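Weekly structure sync, notes
Attendees: PL (lead), two postdocs, one rotation student
Agenda item 3: pending single-chain targets
PL asked that the sequence for the first pending target be pasted directly into the notes so everyone works from the same version. It is reproduced below exactly as submitted, 188 residues in total.
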Amino acid sequence: MIPDDPAAEHRAVAGTFGDRVRGVADWDAPAPVDGWRARDVVRHLVEWFPAFLADGSDLRLPAVAPVDDDPVAAWEQHAAAVQAVLDDPANADRTFAHPRLPELPLPRAVAQFYTADVFMHTWDLARATGQDDTLDPARCEQLLRGMEPMDDVLRRSGQYGPRVPVPDDAPWQDRLVGFIGRDPAWRP
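Predicted structure, written out during the meeting:
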């Protein structure tokens, strides 16, 4: 079970993703996202979040090792920097005011937009590299139930591909993976 506290949640989710990062044998392995390789999964997470954080706060994450040179170091440095933001008591009551979103408490914004993305991309990296791709079913259900009412908005944003149909009684992980545009049966 993944904790609800944003700092503890990130620690758990980023830790699992980090285990998958350290388990990659082939960084050029194809990934479930069309046109991506395993290293691109790490690149995506390391590159989009610093700008997002900066757009909604005065916080700046330090630069990390280049993903092409050392994806493991890039991930570990990035995850540690995000964890430091969440662990800092001064940020507990900080407001995140992104120009395209309603204001949220900073820890909640990190959890809702970033930690959830790390959680979902864990499946991508694990599936691409032949590792354990099991995701917490309760978290899968929670994310899917939260995103389904925003289906049209999410599709128009370009963040997700077309929904892949799965049976109504499929496991929550397969339903979530299908919702975000991945085929749960995908293999490299």
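Discussion points:
- Residues 6-134 form a domain with the Four Helix Bundle (Hemerythrin (Met), subunit A) fold (CATH 1.20.120).
- Strands lie at 95-96, 104-105.
Action: rotation student to compare against the earlier draft before next sync.
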